[in-house]
Specification:
The chain is of the alpha/beta class. It has five helices and six strands. The protein has a six-stranded mixed beta sheet with strand order 3-2-1-4-5-6, with helices on both faces.
């Protein structure tokens, strides 16, 4: 098992949880971004820098992750792509994307994009809170335990 992170938009608090978990269980963590990343010195953690451009990091993750891996992303189209390949996907709020819920998430995302584009609503999701961080850590622990 490897953990792939869509690191450009991943909150620092979630990366910290991932660093500790990977050290604890000895699982490879690969952070993919189109900018330089500061990562801890660890045999388990590495960063991959991809070219700038729309969805370049997403494509790298989708092309390289394999069944048995975990992808951490808030990007619903990326989650849909990896779930379709049989790869687990978890968002930074601790929600596991599945074959059963990904279609609904895509539809909701598209609807919200249309509302934002039309000026009916503004902004994005609320800031990540302590409850979200705890939900992510709990979901990650469950997935790591299941993978062993």
């Amino acid at each position: 098992m490897q953990i792939w992170v869509d690191a450009d938009a991943c909150p620092k608090a979630i990366k910290e949880i991932l660093y500790r978990a990977c050290e604890r269980v000895g699982v490879a963590l690969i952070l993919v971004a189109n900018q330089p990343l500061k990562i801890p010195r660890s045999r388990w953690v590495r960063a991959v820098r991809v070219a700038s451009g729309f969805d370049v990091a997403d494509h790298h993750i989708a092309d390289n992750a394999a069944p048995g891996d975990l992808v951490v992303t808030a990007d619903i189209p990326l989650a849909a792509e990896v779930v379709a390949k049989g790869i687990a996907a978890l968002n930074p709020r601790g929600e596991l994307y599945t074959e059963k819920n990904i279609g609904e998430r895509l539809a909701l995302r598209d609807m919200m994009d249309e509302l934002r584009a039309g000026g009916a609503i503004g902004g994005g999701p609320p800031a990540l809170g302590q409850r979200d961080r705890q939900a992510f850590a709990n979901a990650l622990d469950r997935l790591l335990a299941k993978a062993r």
